[in-house]
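REQUEST
  id: r-88c1
  op: predict_structure
  target: Bifunctional apoptosis regulator
  payload:
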Amino acid sequence: MLHHMEGDSADDDLEEVMNEPLHISDSHQSKPRTSSISETEFSCHCCYNVLVNPTTLTCGHNFCRHCLAQWWESSHKTECPECREKWEGFPKINIMLRDATEKIFSETVEKRREEIKANPKISRSLLAFQRYGDKLGRSKTVQNKGAGFFFSGVLTALTCVAVVVLVYHWGSGVVEHQDLLITKPVSHWTPEEVVSWLEQLGPWTESYREPFQLENVNGRLLLMLGDEELLKPPFSIENQTHRRAVLAELDRVKTLGVKPPQNLWEYKAANAGKSLFLLYALKRSPRLTIFYLYLFDYSETFLPFLHTCCPAITHIDNPVESRFLYDQLEPSWQQWAEFLVKYLVLPYQLIAEFAWDWLAVHYWTSRFIIVNAMLLSVLEACSLWRLWTTAPIRSLPQKMWNHLWKMLSQGFAFALMWPFIPQFVCNCLFYWALYFSPIINIDLVVQQLMHPETQAR
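RESPONSE
  id: r-88c1
  status: 200
  body:
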């Protein structure tokens, strides 16, 4: 019995000894573990401060969100600033590490957050970095659309077929028939073609058509008519404004040798390459395109364009037939001032106003142009706002020069390639840009306006 008691006592002492080192070891381990935590273990290897919104890359390194954004913006590289390994996808904030740093170094993290928010340069870098990530996400979504992407491709294919059918229908229809006088010399016009030319001047010529028909006035006789011949019988155009309008158009016909274009389709038939160039260039650079019209197509296109968009106050109440005269007058300084303001600030509004004036001639086409001009104005405003908020002012001249060089080089390349482009392909591109570009621009505007403006926490 005594032996058992001694054994039990020895066992108790052994258990006590074994438990005691464990307790001491735990206490020694817990104390150094807490005391050894320092800011250097949770510091960013770019700024060497405590991590704020720590972002973990695929290589395992952690950086502040704003430090990574500034590195990406300055280097334009998707690689780790420390080991130079490229990251995959778009880096995300490490939530667990962020919560740990906020609990352990709450005062330091909060102070750094306030400094980051007060720095506009860092805010712009974060916004640009987030937009880059959103763009990657949208492209990845497009790649993984599956059935939606398939149906989008089908819709694009059907649209291309619709353009081809439209070109074929209009190419063999009424439009081509009306283009005859644009390419046929005036001296070869028949009496029927002279009457057709007179009819296209406006409804006010209805009372003068019969004398031209009875006299069988052909192209040669038309070129010989003057003010006295039109005033006397059998033409008897006693209205001085009507007579001046006919003579003004007759002078243009004599100068050109053919009938000048009087609507969009005739202008396209007479200037196929120029119309396609203007249509695409207006989307990318309306100011350069209008300046191009001023330099190379002043009397035939630029003056009517300016008088339509910025009419003279004294000419507003004039009848329709007098517009042939006023379109060739030199604009007043008030018209030039109004035009220059619109040209610099709202160039697409000039196009919309010009299309609005042609609603009676091109009903649906003018509406497509007006809608497209509005959409392009919104896109330009979004681009300017993005440039203002994300890029320094000193980079603006460089961006303007790059844009100018790009437009000039594209125009030069178009001038070289144009003679080799088949007319059917040119027509397809023309109608695509005219009628289906607004649909594409609607999607671009929605993306710009619905863009999530996320900020770093």
